[in-house]
Design a protein that fits this description.
The protein is built from five helices and six strands, in the order αβααβββααββ. It is an alpha/beta fold. The protein folds into two domains: 98 residues, membrane protein fhac (Ubiquitin-like (UB roll), Roll); 81 residues, membrane protein fhac (Ubiquitin-like (UB roll)). The chain is elongated and about 80 Å long.
Length: 206
């Protein structure tokens, strides 16, 4: 069998290496960049977090564009904005698409009724009374789902630290009336019994 000349082998190797080097650039050129208008601060950061990194392949790009509106709406709802106006336009004239997300967040949903309680032996525990009195949100505040989840975590963490090892969240609910711009929140912790360690005895005969 005839062997390829050495220079041909070197040429083929260089072509293969060149293709490998160029592939990421080709994918990037065929991808997408986007900008957000009408938002700043925490709202803009949360929308970007929900959208995720810019896509790198044509397939990822299609999915990114298709889900952009829903993801943006979810990001805004997490911070209490349930009635946004989201306008998305995509310029596909170049190999690298450009997407514009223009948002008018609208008026936020604010907390109306707040019902936070504990049952069981923890009802007489001052540590819980202090936490319930300062949950991190109050009536009239803009609904922030992150603060609500943080309070739930703090409630369960406190229960464990105070010896209520059977404690559980019996009820946890956020009821949003977007048309009225109001939300009601309810959390009930069932603490159960408070466990305590008995007297420790040391047997020197062991």
């Amino acid at each position: 069998m005839d062997h390829l000349p050495h220079y041909s082998c070197r040429l083929i190797a260089r072509i293969v290496v060149a293709c490998i080097v160029l592939l990421p650039g080709v994918a990037a050129a065929q991808s997408l960049t986007y900008g957000i208008e009408g938002l700043d601060g925490e709202l803009a950061r949360n929308v970007r977090a929900w959208l995720g990194p810019e896509p790198e392949t044509p397939a990822e790009r299609q999915n990114f564009v298709a889900s952009a509106r829903e993801r943006s709406a979810s990001a805004l709802q997490a911070l209490g904005y349930y009635r946004p106006d989201i306008d998305i336009s995509v310029d596909r004239s170049a190999s690298r698409w450009t997407m514009r997300i223009a948002v008018t967040p609208g008026e936020p949903v604010r907390l109306r009724e707040i019902d936070l309680n504990v049952s069981g032996e923890a009802t007489t525990d001052e540590a819980f009374a202090e936490l319930l009195a300062s949950p991190g949100f109050a009536g009239g505040d803009v609904l922030h789902h992150g603060k609500f989840e943080r309070f739930r975590s703090e409630l369960l963490s406190l229960a464990q630290k105070r010896g209520y090892f059977d404690a559980r969240i019996a009820s946890s609910r956020i009821t949003v009336d977007a048309d009225a711009g109001a939300a009601d929140v309810r959390v009930l912790l069932e603490s159960g019994e408070r466990f305590a360690f008995g007297e420790f005895e040391y047997d020197q005969t062991l």
